[in-house]
Amino acid sequence: MKKVSPSSCEGCPARQEGIFCNLDFADIIDVSHHKITNKYKKGQTLFVQGTHPFGLYCISAGNIKLTKTGVDGKESIVRIVHAGDILGHRSLFTDEDFGKTATAMEDTEVCFIDKKYILSLIQKNPSVALNIINKLSRDMGNAETKLSSLHQKNVRERLAELLLSLKATHGVKEDNRWRIDLKLTREEMATMIGTANETLIRFMTEFKEAGIIEQEGKVLYVKDEEELLNWANIHY
C-alpha cells in the first residue's frame, strides 16, 4: 500500500456513482480534507476477515474482490466492487468485525474516511445516510438473488447469470459485442457460482461453441446477450 496526496472529491471520476453525489461544493471539500488516499497494487489487501473496522473505504479507481474463508479453509469470492462503490459500511454501522477480506484485483486507488467523521457527516447530511441505506438495500437484494440462484439453478444457468452480471458492471461495448473489462481466473469464476473448476471450463466451452461468448487471449466477450438471458433462465 502506498499513501498518496489526497485529491479533491470534486474531481473524482467516481463521485457521481458514490454516496457523496448529493453534497454541495463546501461539504465535498470538507470530505476531501478528512480522507486518506491510498494506492494498492494487485494482490494487496485493504482489510482482512475478522479484523475490526475503523472507517469507510471509497473506491476511486480499480476493482476489488471480497472473499470469505470458511471453516474448512476454502476461500470463495462473495462479490466484486469497482469505482464509485464503498466498503466496510455494514461492519461500520453494526460495529462487527469484517466478515470478508478485500483484495485489489489490479492497481487500485481507495480513499479511507474514519468512523467518527463519517458518522458526523451523516448527521449533518441526511442524503449521505439515504445513499448508504440504498447501497445496503441493493447489497441485500443481490445477496438474496445469489442465494436463490445457488439453490434453484443449475451450473449452466448460474454461469450465464454471472456473465450477464459482469457484462452489466464491467461491460464495454465494441461493435456488436460486449468486452468484459475485468480479468478473472477460471478458479475465481468457479468459486463465484459454487462449482468445480473443471465443470466451469466445460460449460465455458459449451457457451463458446454455441456462439454466445468469445475469448481472445484472456479477454471474454459477450456476443449474444439475448441467448445468454435464455440460458440463464431470466425473464423480464
Question: How would you summarize the topology of this molecule?
Answer:
Layout: E1 2-4, H1 25-33, E2 35-40, E3 45-47, E4 55-61, E5 63-69, E6 75-82, E7 86-87, H2 89-94, E8 101-104, E9 108-114, H3 115-124, H4 126-152, H5 155-170, E10 171-174, E11 177-180, H6 186-193, H7 197-209, E12 213-216, E13 219-222, H8 225-232
Protein name: Crp/Fnr family transcriptional regulator
Domain HTH crp-type: 153-226
Domain Cyclic nucleotide-binding: 19-139
Describe this entry's structure for a reader.
- 41% of the residues lie in helices and 27% in strands.
- The protein contains 8 helices and 13 strands.
- It has helices at 25-33, 89-94, 115-124, 126-152, 155-170, 186-193, 197-209, 225-232; strands spanning 2-4, 35-40, 45-47, 55-61, 63-69, 75-82, 86-87, 101-104, 108-114, 171-174, 177-180, 213-216, 219-222.
- The chain has a 5-stranded antiparallel beta sheet. A 4-stranded antiparallel beta sheet has the order 3-8-5-6. It has a 4-stranded antiparallel beta sheet with strand order 10-11-13-12.
- α3 packs across α4 and α6 packs across α7 (197-209).
- The termini are far apart.
- The mean pLDDT is 87.
